[in-house]
Specification:
The complex is a heterodimer of chains A (184) and B (312). With 184 residues, chain A is mainly alpha-helical. Chain A has helices at 23-39, 55-66, 76-87, 93-111, 117-137, 145-160, 162-177, and strands at 10-11, 14-15, 19-20, 181-182. Chain B has five helices and twelve strands. The chains are: A mainly alpha (184), B alpha+beta (312).
């Protein structure tokens, strides 16, 4: 069989005979990827204006919408607390906003159970915009016109980045479920 | 695609309870988040130790990326330098000539200055930096403009200390971890710095606007004496900064002052020096108790109170 086609006994997750996904990987990849996305923007030096939308929040939206049912409803709390340590926003803002976002998605999902990519993008875009505005309001600095103007590219990026994030989450998910463990 | 059916509880009591618990825990998270948010808006320094520990972990990684950033900037500058090398050479030669003359003049002024200070009995105190560190990162996703340093309380850095690059003022230390510190950049909209014009005695405040520019507000209103291109330096009021460090250059004029560009841009800065607070005694008196108030953004009441005697 394998002489005819080397991929005959495998699928996108790898070989199927005597292999299994790594249990650690299956459980940790979503959380680790969101936490890494919290840390990554810290390494940029932005002195003029916010350069990126909150990558970790977009990653959270991606995992929640691409893989519904994987993250528990309360995952926004601990992950948000971790993000607050690095984001520069007042501590507690992400705990609040991420939890609210996950509850909102849950409600939307119950209301519209059948959905596709475009509807997901619409949901993610709306929630990301609301999050962007809320971030500006609770940042602890007075809300000025200059601040809003300078953060507009951030709002645009947070909408446009969702499809890329969704693809990234999909490939991370393939990595997560890859059959890495050999059973003997 | 419909979501997996595990989200629907059906008649199973166990599934119903676990669904209910999920909502309950998420609701509790919302309440906890709201409480913590209100607490940290009320007391911005409340979670400083937590954040300090977290930034200690990231700072070593940031040092690596800072080195790469500076090298890549040097590479681009090197490439662009080749394109107009000839013309630049002539301009630079001319500039060096003029600079030499000015340098000789400055030496004369300096010696005279020393003589006069000797007559007055003032002691010259050169600020010795507490530490020299790299800018390793910043809050790139937030509306606040904070940066991270690769030196912390382990090397003697304390909240309130000014952070200065070879070009001018970068900001002020806000919180410290053991091996890292968080800096309030001048462009943050909570940052206020007493400044004066480099030549002449125009006193003003430089406030961050949150968009990379500073708003310079004159203390004495009247005819606006500022011109485009004026250099603003620290006035030393408030006691945090030593006087005479370059801050910003006026780029446009407004009725009550001007809009200024930074002299020392953090993104183009490699190493910074953390200097001790210039007049710790004055800061301690002005902030009421000890210098712990330095942990928060400089309250404007403190600044104006400290600046008024200088402004007269």
């Amino acid at each position: 069989m394998e002489r005819l086609d080397s991929r005959a006994r495998s699928d996108i997750y790898g070989k199927r005979i005597n292999r299994a996904p790594d249990p650690w990987r299956v459980r940790s990849v979503p959380y680790v990827s969101i936490m890494l996305a919290s840390i990554l923007p810290v390494l940029l030096v932005a002195d003029m204006m916010p350069l990126l939308p909150s990558l970790a929040f977009l990653m959270l939206l991606g995992w929640r919408l691409v893989r519904p049912g994987l993250l528990p409803l309360w995952a926004g709390g601990p992950l948000g607390a971790f993000d607050d340590l690095f984001s520069g926003q007042p501590f507690g803002s992400a705990i609040l906003l991420w939890s609210l976002a996950l509850i909102a998605i849950e409600v939307i999902e119950n209301r519209f159970p059948w959905r596709g990519f475009w509807q997901d993008w619409f949901t993610a875009g709306t929630i990301a915009l609301a999050y962007w505005l809320a971030m500006l309001l609770v940042s602890g600095a007075p809300f000025t016109r200059e601040m809003l103007l300078v953060a507009l590219p951030q709002a645009l990026l947070s909408i446009l980045l969702y499809p890329i994030m969704a693809r990234m989450v999909a490939s991370l998910d393939r990595f997560r479920l890859a059959r890495a463990r050999v059973i003997n | 695609m419909a979501p997996p059916s595990s989200r629907r509880s059906g008649f199973s009591k166990k599934a119903q309870f676990s669904l209910f618990t999920g909502y309950l825990v998420a609701g509790v998270m919302v309440v906890i988040g709201l409480g913590l948010l209100l607490l940290s808006l009320w007391q911005p320094a409340a979670f400083a130790p937590l954040r300090g520990a977290a930034s200690d972990v990231v700072a070593p990684v940031g040092s690596g990326s800072a080195a790469v950033r500076n090298q890549s900037q040097g590479l681009f500058a090197g490439i662009s330098g080749y394109f107009n090398a000839g013309q630049q050479n002539a301009v630079l030669r001319e500039e060096v000539e003029i600079a030499r003359i000015r340098l000789a003049e400055a030496e004369a002024v300096e010696s005279e200055n020393r003589r006069l200070k000797g007559l007055l009995g003032l002691k010259e105190t050169e600020a010795k930096p507490v530490a020299v560190a790299r800018l390793v990162g910043s809050t790139a996703t937030s509306a606040r403009r904070h940066a991270y340093l690769s030196a912390g309380s382990g090397s003697g850095v304390k909240p309130g200390m000014p952070v200065i690059s070879e070009r001018g003022v970068i900001g002020r230390v806000l919180e410290t971890g053991r091996g890292s510190a968080r800096v309030l950049l001048l462009t943050d909209s909570e940052s206020v710095l007493p400044v004066r014009r480099a030549k002449g005695d125009v006193i003003a405040f430089a406030e961050g606007r949150g968009d990379g520019l500073l708003r310079v507000r004159l203390v004495n209103l009247g005819v606006n004496p500022l011109k485009v291109g004026d250099l603003m330096v620290t006035s030393g009021a408030g006691g945090y900064y030593r006087p005479g460090v370059a801050v910003a250059v006026i780029s446009s004029i407004t009725p009550d002052g001007g809009i200024a560009r930074l002299v020392a841009e953090p993104a183009a800065t490699n190493f910074v020096a953390i200097e001790p607070v210039h007049q710790p005694a004055a800061v301690a008196v002005l902030s009421g108790s000890d210098a712990q108030a330095a942990g928060e953004a400089l309250p404007s009441s403190t600044t104006s109170a400290s600046a008024t005697p200088d402004a007269e």
